[in-house]
Design a protein that fits this description.
alpha/beta; six-stranded parallel sheet; about 170 residues
Length: about 170
C-alpha cells in the first residue's frame, strides 16, 4: 500500500510567542525530521494550509498564512489550501491521493482537536489507512483542558475508535 505524509496547518500564524502551542518547537522538529525521512525514501509529501478568513492569524496572503520554514514544502510538494477543518472538504485532496495510488496516510500538524481530528476521521471514512503521529501534532490550552490533555485525549479517541493507528515520529513506518 502506497503511503503519503500529510502535514497539516503548520503555518507561521500558529506559532505566536504570546500564545505558544504545547510542545510547539519540539513538534516542528519531529515533523521536520519525519519530512526528511519521507523525502529520502521517496514518500509523497503533501502540505495542507488553512485560510482562517479576514482578521484571523491564518488569513490568506498574510505572513501568518505561510507554512513555517522548519517544515516548508520543497520541490514539487503540493500545498492544499482549505478553509474548513477537513483537509478533504472542497480541496481535491482525495482525488489527488487516488490519482497517486495512495492508500495510507501518515498525518501530523495542527490543530489537534480541529483539523487533525477531522482529517483523520474523514480519511478513515474515505477508506484510507491512517497513521497519526502521536507526538507530531499539537494545540493550545483551553479554559477546560490543557493542550497536553487535548492531545492525549485525541490520540486515545482516534486509536480506540479505529480511526487511526498511532506511532511516535521516530517510529513511524513510511
Amino acid at each position: 500500500m502506497t503511503t503519503a505524509l500529510i502535514v497539516i496547518d503548520l503555518q507561521r500564524g500558529m506559532f505566536d510567542p504570546a500564545q505558544p502551542a504545547h510542545d510547539g518547537e519540539a513538534v516542528l522538529a519531529r515533523v521536520a525530521a519525519l519530512l526528511a525521512r519521507a523525502r529520502a525514501a521517496g514518500v509523497p509529501v503533501l502540505h495542507v494550509r488553512h485560510d482562517g478568513g479576514a482578521g484571523d492569524p491564518l488569513q490568506r496572503d498574510t505572513p501568518g498564512w505561510t507554512i513555517h520554514p522548519a517544515v516548508a514544502p520543497m520541490g514539487v510538494e503540493p500545498v492544499i489550501d482549505k478553509d474548513r477543518s477537513s483537509a478533504f472538504h472542497g480541496t481535491g485532496l482525495h482525488e489527488r491521493l487516488q490519482a497517486g495510488g495512495i492508500g495510507r496516510l501518515v498525518i501530523a500538524g495542527m490543530q489537534t482537536e480541529f483539523c487533525i481530528d477531522t482529517t483523520c476521521r474523514a480519511a478513515h471514512d474515505l477508506g484510507y489507512a491512517v497513521a497519526l503521529v502521536a507526538d507530531g501534532h499539537t494545540t493550545f490550552d483551553t479554559p477546560d483542558l490543557s493542550a497536553a490533555q487535548v492531545v492525549a485525549h485525541h490520540n486515545r479517541t482516534l486509536r480506540n475508535g479505529g480511526f487511526a493507528e498511532l506511532a511516535d515520529a521516530a517510529a513511524v513506518v513510511l
